[in-house]
Automatic annotation (TrEMBL):
PANTHER family for the chain: LACTATE UTILIZATION PROTEIN C
Pfam name, any one: LUD_dom
Domain annotation LUD: ranges: 8-187
InterPro entries xref list: FTHF_cligase-like_sf, LUD_dom, NagB/RpiA_transferase-like
Gene3D superfamilies for the chain: NagB/RpiA/CoA transferase-like
Annotated signal peptide: none
Source organism per UniProt: Candidatus Saccharicenans subterraneus
Source species taxonomy: Bacteria, Candidatus Aminicenantota, Candidatus Aminicenantia, Candidatus Aminicenantales, Candidatus Saccharicenantaceae
Domain of life: Bacteria
Protein name (database record): L-lactate utilization protein LutC
Length: 189
Protein backbone atom coordinates (compact mmCIF):
# COMPACT_ATOMS: atom_id res chain seq x y z
CA UNK A 1 0.00 0.00 0.00
CA UNK A 2 1.51 3.36 -0.89
CA UNK A 3 2.06 5.45 2.22
CA UNK A 4 2.23 9.20 2.40
CA UNK A 5 2.06 11.96 4.95
CA UNK A 6 -1.14 13.08 3.22
CA UNK A 7 -2.85 9.77 4.08
CA UNK A 8 -1.84 10.10 7.73
CA UNK A 9 -3.06 13.70 7.80
CA UNK A 10 -6.37 12.78 6.16
CA UNK A 11 -6.86 9.81 8.49
CA UNK A 12 -6.17 11.98 11.55
CA UNK A 13 -8.62 14.68 10.41
CA UNK A 14 -11.42 12.21 9.64
CA UNK A 15 -10.91 10.22 12.87
CA UNK A 16 -10.83 13.40 14.97
CA UNK A 17 -14.04 14.59 13.29
CA UNK A 18 -15.86 11.59 14.81
CA UNK A 19 -14.41 12.12 18.31
CA UNK A 20 -11.40 9.79 18.14
CA UNK A 21 -8.23 11.07 19.79
CA UNK A 22 -5.21 10.61 17.52
CA UNK A 23 -1.51 10.68 18.41
CA UNK A 24 1.55 10.08 16.25
CA UNK A 25 4.91 8.60 17.19
CA UNK A 26 8.01 7.68 15.21
CA UNK A 27 8.02 4.09 16.58
CA UNK A 28 5.64 1.59 18.09
CA UNK A 29 7.70 1.61 21.30
CA UNK A 30 7.24 5.37 21.68
CA UNK A 31 3.52 5.05 20.89
CA UNK A 32 3.20 2.42 23.61
CA UNK A 33 5.02 4.71 26.05
CA UNK A 34 2.47 7.46 25.26
CA UNK A 35 -0.38 5.02 25.84
CA UNK A 36 1.01 3.86 29.20
CA UNK A 37 1.44 7.52 30.21
CA UNK A 38 -2.21 8.22 29.24
CA UNK A 39 -3.45 5.16 31.17
CA UNK A 40 -1.59 6.29 34.31
CA UNK A 41 -2.78 9.90 34.01
CA UNK A 42 -6.40 8.81 33.54
CA UNK A 43 -6.07 6.13 36.25
CA UNK A 44 -7.17 3.40 33.84
CA UNK A 45 -5.24 0.54 35.40
CA UNK A 46 -7.53 -2.45 34.84
CA UNK A 47 -6.60 -3.38 31.26
CA UNK A 48 -6.26 -6.07 28.63
CA UNK A 49 -4.16 -6.24 25.47
CA UNK A 50 -3.79 -8.40 22.41
CA UNK A 51 -0.93 -10.90 22.55
CA UNK A 52 1.56 -8.76 20.64
CA UNK A 53 1.01 -5.62 22.72
CA UNK A 54 0.93 -7.62 25.98
CA UNK A 55 4.42 -8.86 25.16
CA UNK A 56 5.61 -5.31 24.50
CA UNK A 57 3.98 -4.07 27.72
CA UNK A 58 6.05 -6.59 29.69
CA UNK A 59 9.17 -4.57 28.85
CA UNK A 60 7.72 -1.38 30.40
CA UNK A 61 7.11 -0.16 33.91
CA UNK A 62 3.55 -1.31 34.40
CA UNK A 63 3.58 -1.36 38.21
CA UNK A 64 0.04 -0.83 39.46
CA UNK A 65 -1.60 -2.12 36.28
CA UNK A 66 -3.82 -5.18 36.32
CA UNK A 67 -3.35 -6.84 32.92
CA UNK A 68 -5.88 -9.63 32.39
CA UNK A 69 -6.96 -11.88 29.52
CA UNK A 70 -10.69 -12.54 29.92
CA UNK A 71 -12.65 -15.33 28.27
CA UNK A 72 -16.18 -13.95 28.59
CA UNK A 73 -17.77 -10.75 27.25
CA UNK A 74 -18.92 -9.59 30.69
CA UNK A 75 -15.31 -9.80 31.91
CA UNK A 76 -14.14 -7.56 29.04
CA UNK A 77 -16.93 -5.08 29.85
CA UNK A 78 -15.54 -4.69 33.39
CA UNK A 79 -12.14 -3.52 32.12
CA UNK A 80 -11.19 0.13 31.91
CA UNK A 81 -9.13 -0.13 28.72
CA UNK A 82 -7.94 -2.44 25.97
CA UNK A 83 -4.80 -2.11 23.87
CA UNK A 84 -5.17 -3.49 20.35
CA UNK A 85 -3.25 -3.45 17.09
CA UNK A 86 -5.31 -2.36 14.07
CA UNK A 87 -4.72 -4.46 10.98
CA UNK A 88 -5.55 -1.67 8.53
CA UNK A 89 -7.18 1.76 8.30
CA UNK A 90 -9.03 3.87 5.73
CA UNK A 91 -7.94 7.51 5.44
CA UNK A 92 -11.07 8.61 3.55
CA UNK A 93 -13.30 7.85 6.56
CA UNK A 94 -10.91 7.72 9.55
CA UNK A 95 -11.83 4.06 10.02
CA UNK A 96 -9.79 1.37 11.77
CA UNK A 97 -10.03 -2.20 10.49
CA UNK A 98 -9.43 -5.33 12.54
CA UNK A 99 -9.43 -8.93 11.31
CA UNK A 100 -11.13 -10.90 14.08
CA UNK A 101 -10.19 -14.58 14.34
CA UNK A 102 -12.04 -15.22 17.62
CA UNK A 103 -14.88 -13.66 19.62
CA UNK A 104 -12.23 -12.48 22.12
CA UNK A 105 -10.65 -10.37 19.34
CA UNK A 106 -13.98 -8.62 18.78
CA UNK A 107 -14.76 -8.22 22.49
CA UNK A 108 -11.33 -6.68 23.11
CA UNK A 109 -12.13 -3.89 20.60
CA UNK A 110 -15.67 -3.21 21.64
CA UNK A 111 -16.42 -3.93 25.30
CA UNK A 112 -13.94 -2.05 27.55
CA UNK A 113 -14.80 1.63 28.06
CA UNK A 114 -11.56 2.83 26.41
CA UNK A 115 -9.98 1.38 23.27
CA UNK A 116 -6.32 2.27 22.66
CA UNK A 117 -5.60 1.22 19.09
CA UNK A 118 -2.14 1.10 17.54
CA UNK A 119 -1.78 1.63 13.81
CA UNK A 120 1.27 1.22 11.60
CA UNK A 121 1.15 4.19 9.22
CA UNK A 122 2.07 1.86 6.35
CA UNK A 123 -1.31 0.12 6.75
CA UNK A 124 -3.44 3.16 5.94
CA UNK A 125 -5.35 2.75 2.68
CA UNK A 126 -6.60 5.82 0.84
CA UNK A 127 -10.11 4.39 0.36
CA UNK A 128 -12.17 1.17 0.49
CA UNK A 129 -11.05 0.05 -2.98
CA UNK A 130 -7.40 0.22 -1.93
CA UNK A 131 -8.25 -1.53 1.34
CA UNK A 132 -9.89 -4.44 -0.51
CA UNK A 133 -6.76 -4.87 -2.63
CA UNK A 134 -4.66 -4.90 0.55
CA UNK A 135 -7.01 -7.50 2.13
CA UNK A 136 -6.60 -9.78 -0.84
CA UNK A 137 -2.81 -9.59 -0.70
CA UNK A 138 -2.65 -9.90 3.08
CA UNK A 139 -5.01 -12.84 3.38
CA UNK A 140 -3.63 -14.81 0.46
CA UNK A 141 -0.01 -14.34 1.57
CA UNK A 142 -0.62 -15.37 5.17
CA UNK A 143 -0.30 -11.90 6.65
CA UNK A 144 2.83 -10.82 8.47
CA UNK A 145 4.15 -14.34 8.95
CA UNK A 146 3.74 -15.39 5.32
CA UNK A 147 2.78 -18.95 6.35
CA UNK A 148 -0.11 -19.65 3.98
CA UNK A 149 -3.58 -18.22 3.76
CA UNK A 150 -5.23 -16.44 6.70
CA UNK A 151 -8.61 -16.58 4.99
CA UNK A 152 -9.72 -19.56 7.11
CA UNK A 153 -8.64 -17.89 10.36
CA UNK A 154 -10.46 -14.58 9.92
CA UNK A 155 -14.05 -14.97 11.09
CA UNK A 156 -15.12 -11.33 11.04
CA UNK A 157 -13.85 -7.97 9.86
CA UNK A 158 -14.51 -5.07 12.24
CA UNK A 159 -14.68 -1.49 11.00
CA UNK A 160 -14.35 1.07 13.80
CA UNK A 161 -14.94 4.76 13.10
CA UNK A 162 -14.65 6.74 16.31
CA UNK A 163 -16.06 5.78 19.70
CA UNK A 164 -19.49 4.17 19.85
CA UNK A 165 -22.25 6.70 19.21
CA UNK A 166 -26.01 6.51 19.15
CA UNK A 167 -28.91 8.89 19.67
CA UNK A 168 -32.02 8.50 21.75
CA UNK A 169 -35.52 9.17 20.43
CA UNK A 170 -35.08 12.91 21.10
CA UNK A 171 -31.89 12.99 19.04
CA UNK A 172 -29.59 13.33 22.09
CA UNK A 173 -26.14 11.95 21.17
CA UNK A 174 -24.77 9.32 23.55
CA UNK A 175 -21.21 7.97 23.41
CA UNK A 176 -20.15 4.53 24.60
CA UNK A 177 -23.51 2.77 24.57
CA UNK A 178 -22.67 0.04 22.02
CA UNK A 179 -18.87 0.08 22.25
CA UNK A 180 -16.01 2.06 23.71
CA UNK A 181 -16.69 5.47 25.22
CA UNK A 182 -13.28 6.70 24.04
CA UNK A 183 -11.13 5.66 21.10
CA UNK A 184 -7.48 6.65 21.19
CA UNK A 185 -5.43 5.91 18.08
CA UNK A 186 -1.64 5.80 18.22
CA UNK A 187 -0.16 5.98 14.71
CA UNK A 188 3.46 4.92 14.48
CA UNK A 189 6.19 4.36 11.91
Amino acid sequence: MPMSKDLVKQFKEKAAAVSAEVFTSPTQAKALDKAVEWLRKEKKLKITADDKLAGLLAARDTAGFSLTFPDKPEQFAELQAALVEADFAVAETGTLVHLDATPRDLWRWTLPENCLAFLDRGKIAANMEELLEAFNTYLSSGGKEGEGSLANEVKQISFVTGPSRTADIEGQLELGVHGPLRLLIFIYG
